[in-house]
Amino acid sequence: MNAPAPAPIRLVNLTLGYDRRPAVHHLEGEIAPGAGLAVCGPNGAGKSTLLKALAGLLAPLGGSIERGGASPRNVAYLPQIVDIDSAFPINLRDFVAMGAMTRIGLFGGLDAAERARVAEAIETVGLSGFEERALDTLSGGQMQRALFARLIVQDQSVILLDEPFGAIDEATIDDLLALISRWRAEGRTVVAVLHDFDIARRAFPQTLLLARERIAWGDTRDALCKANLARARAMSAAFDESARECLRDEETRHVH
Ligand SMILES: Nc1ncnc2c1ncn2[C@@H]1O[C@H](COP(=O)(O)OP(=O)(O)OP(=O)(O)O)[C@@H](O)[C@H]1O
């Protein structure tokens, strides 16, 4: 694995947001090495925001993410498909090879070992024969497979997936879930934002149910129980988008 010894990722009183407006409040928890964690919750709950922070793309407004010596560079991050530019003029092989960039640099050439790794990744996701195809000619499911092939080449110990199964068919979902189990069997940590609770129950032992704050974090079946889901919906509906400051911070300030 292209990574240092695994350490837990600790979220310490973590508050995240944009332009000082909090989107996720006071999150506490620990993601153990090798964990399979689903992040679920209503629209706008802060799921993608949390993933961006775990990927090192968003600095906390408060609190911290402790990585035990690892850096965000040791994380492979798959953004939501809407945020990916598939019109980029590149063929599938070169796109998958971009996963090797942290090892070889932006303009470094691929040696034989890296080329073999790229070919194997393409085969693993079932896209052999598509190597020369332009990215913008791939179907949605094929594009998702290509993105997973790039993650294989990245070879990181922590893999973050933002809604990896939107608009793809059952067969592709099954293949990609098999890949996720393989990653976990290799000791990698996988954190995935999921809207489909059945997939969370099937493939992710742990779930964080988020609605701007932590509603539940633990065994997936317990976290996604009816009572918690109802609470998440109510919290989300009650959230005041115009609130510029975190209410709990305000209260703490008044107490002191
Ligand atoms: N770049 C941004 N600038 C300002 N506000 C943002 C930005 N990105 C997200 N937000 C706001 O942060 C909050 C959380 O958004 P986020 O995308 O994390 O939610 P989500 O749980 O992933 O939602 P969904 O299920 O709809 O994808 C929302 O209120 C959103 O409008």
Automatic annotation (TrEMBL):
SMART domains: AAA (SM00382)
Keywords of this entry: ATP-binding, Ion transport, Nucleotide-binding, Transport, Zinc, Zinc transport
SUPFAM superfamilies documented for this protein: P-loop containing nucleoside triphosphate hydrolases
Protein family according to the UniProt entry: Belongs to the ABC transporter superfamily.
Full protein name: ATP-binding cassette domain-containing protein
UniProt GO MF annotations: ATP binding
Domain of life from the UniProt record: Bacteria
Domain ABC transporter per the UniProt entry, residue ranges: 9-237
Lineage per the UniProt record: Bacteria, Pseudomonadati, Pseudomonadota, Alphaproteobacteria, Hyphomicrobiales
